[in-house]
Design goal:
A hairpin with a 5-residue loop joins strand 9 and strand 10. The termini are far apart. Helix 1 packs across helix 4. The chain folds into two domains: about 140 residues, 3-Layer(aba) Sandwich (Endonuclease, Chain A); about 110 residues, Trna Endonuclease, Chain: A, domain 1. It contains eight helices and ten strands.
Length: about 260
């Protein structure tokens, strides 16, 4: 009998770690994601397959038993605390995850065997190259600004920063490293590069509410917008402690010289 460490779920999470550049918290439990109360009235916390705090992302890998009736897994003759058999409870708890995770500000991506290289029984062939390419698409964000933010968060983690909940809820990225704090504004590809660059600088100015000497500000843009954000003179950016970061089309991050 296989263990969780060599399961398809562990394989998928491992590939996601490679794509995201961050190691997941597996079988993570949130205080607000609860199962139904048992006879004692106690509610257990429901685990999620994988959670990446730096990306504010949860991944659920749902094998065939999550979508098809399977007596071996469902145990229809055995009732759960929810008053239904295991298969119905699984569907109930999946629906609860689908609702509660986004409601608490996290992104949820559900991955199924059919999304990857799998056989007819839903077992993964473990074609790493093809599966990794598929996961890149599945984990991609909806907009180019989301892509830029994700790439920058991955870079921050690699550089020893820890992303934190922003002090200002409109801030795109905030991270700490020792005494240092970084507050970032990000922009994606746009047809109005100059206007959006000016807006981004204005947004950063509104974030400058702290006098702490170890706080710096980041403007993070795709390669196509680098010239637009460099129009603000270097000496002005130095005075305001604003650093510029470029995110290439291949999601490589460069800090631009000041």
């Amino acid at each position: 009998m296989g263990t969780r460490d060599d399961s398809d779920e562990a394989y998928v999470v491992g590939l996601c770690n490679q794509v995201l550049g961050e190691t997941a918290l597996t079988q993570h439990k949130f205080d607000w994601l609860l199962g139904d109360p048992g006879t004692s009235g106690r509610q257990v916390r429901l685990p999620v397959d994988a959670y990446w705090p730096g990306h504010q992302l949860v991944v659920e890998y749902r094998e065939l038993q999550h979508d098809q009736a399977m007596p071996h897994f469902d145990k229809p003759d055995r009732m759960t605390v929810s008053g239904v058999h295991r298969g119905e409870q699984r569907a109930l708890y999946d629906a609860r995850r689908d609702t509660e995770i986004p409601a608490h500000g996290l992104r949820l991506v559900v991955i199924r065997p059919a999304d990857l290289d799998a056989d007819g029984r839903g077992r993964l062939r473990r074609n790493e190259q093809a599966d990794r390419a598929a996961l890149h698409k599945l984990l991609a964000r909806d907009s180019d600004e989301d892509r830029v933010i994700d790439a920058f968060r991955t870079w921050l983690l690699a550089e020893g920063w820890t992303p934190v909940d922003p002090t200002d809820r409109w801030t795109d990225v905030e991270a700490v490293r020792g005494e240092d704090r970084l507050i970032g504004e990000a922009k994606g590809r746009t047809s109005e590069k100059g206007i959006d660059a000016d807006i981004a600088y204005g947004q950063l100015l509104r974030r400058m509410t702290s006098h702490a000497p170890h706080t710096r500000y980041a403007l993070v843009v795709p390669s196509a917008s680098v010239k637009a954000v460099e129009r603000v003179p270097t000496h002005v950016r130095r005075l305001l402690r604003i650093d510029l970061y470029e995110v290439t089309d291949g999601n490589t991050v460069y800090q631009l010289p000041t």
